[in-house]
Amino acid sequence: MKIIITGSLGNIGRPLTKGLVEKGHSITVISSNTERQKDIETLGANAAIGSLDDVSFLAETFTNADAVYCMVPPNFRELNSVDYYKRIGQNYKKAIEQSKVKRIVFLSSWGAHLDKGTGTILGSYHVEQILKDLENVHITYIRACSMYYNLNNYIDMIKNADMIGTNYKGSDTIVWVAPSDIADAVEEELNKTTNDNLNIRYVASDEVTADETAKALGEAIGKPNLRWTSFSNEQVKKSLMDMGLPEDFAQDLTDLNSSISSGKMGEDYELNKPVLGKVKIKDFASEFADAYNK
Questions:
Q1: Residues 100/36, Cβ–Cβ less than 8 Å
Q2: DSSP string of 161-184?
Q3: Exposure winner among 48, 95, 160, 237, fewest CB in 10 A?
Q4: CB 146 within 8 A of CB 284
């Protein structure tokens, strides 16, 4: 199969590309960074260097492909994340229509069934709405849960304040996912021969409370007494703004965490639970310890 991978060689793109190349597929990886070309080619894939804002480039790259994996790369220069997602989503839609590619797998998020109250996750909701209007295209939405690697953002807090926490309670259950487990699910969906117009697939690796998360990380870094600390929405928003984030962006991140605590983020996930992936919190804790000790 000829498969196009967007998102360059990121946390998901690298293992996905490697796995697909090893199975004999012809892979082209889109990246905006010319310095990535050598790394892409070293994996046995072709590099297409260009911008996701260039619809003509996308359409040309997608043409004659059997399947395309679409994702919206993080871009912290885009302070209005919803507008950013909408723009890239529209670009993907136009390129898919122009290239006439018939199978798409889009990296979405849990909580993408909601049209409000989930902060930055709203971007995934809007891209889902944009892509679902495509005609004669088989689409899978990969609704990935909370990424393990986001826990690395707490390293400074642990080092400086000997605590970890945000605006959800220690007793709140968090559904974590590893990029490698997402890559496995995406690969399966890209290879499917079914003709469903729309398929929604949740991907998760482990379900643990925030307290259990803190315990696993603490044991891995030699802080067995590390406990989860719950902060108010106001405290978290102020802290983010003190770090230099604009108020709207700080509010989005606060809303995201609040929706996890309230259960809104996971309400559809609970109705459509997947088989959990391979990487558990204790497995990730070893990776976290490596990052913590650098």
A1: no
A2: HS-EEESB-TTSEEEEE-HHHHHH
A3: 160
A4: no
**Residue 234 CA to chain centroid, in angstroms?**
26
CB atoms within 10 A of CB 264: 16
pLDDT, tens digit, 9 for 90 and up, residues 259-283:
999 999 999 999 999 999 999 999 9
pTM beyond 0.85, yes or no: yes
User: Quick check: helix, strand or coil at residue 68?
Assistant: strand
Residue identified by tokens 């990969």 is 142
The third-level CATH classification (topology) of the domain covering 206-293 is UDP-galactose 4-epimerase; domain 1 (3.90.25)
Q: Please state, in angstroms and rounded to a whole number, the distance separating the CA atoms of residues 265 and 13.
A: 25
Domain 2-146+177-203 has CATH 3.80.10.10: no
Distance spanning both ends of the chain, measured CA to CA: 40
Is the Cα torsion angle 157, 161, 167, 171 positive or negative in sign?
Answer: positive
For the chain, domain boundaries: 2-146+177-203, 206-293
Read off the pLDDT of residues 45-72 as tens digits, 9 standing for 90 and up: 999 999 999 999 999 999 999 999 999 9
Q: Which helix (H) or strand (E) holds 274?
A: none
- The residues, any chain, with a CB within 8 Å of residue 78's CB and separated by 6 or more, are 84
**Ordered strands of the 46-49 beta sheet:** 46-49, 26-31, 2-5, 67-70, 103-109, 138-144, 198-203
> What are the structure tokens assigned to 5, written together?
């991978």
Q: What angle do CA 196, 272, 261 make, to 5 degrees?
A: 135
Residue type, 67: A
Residue 112 host element (H or E) = none
CB 167 within 8 A of CB 231: yes
For the record, the structure tokens of 258 come out as: 């609040």
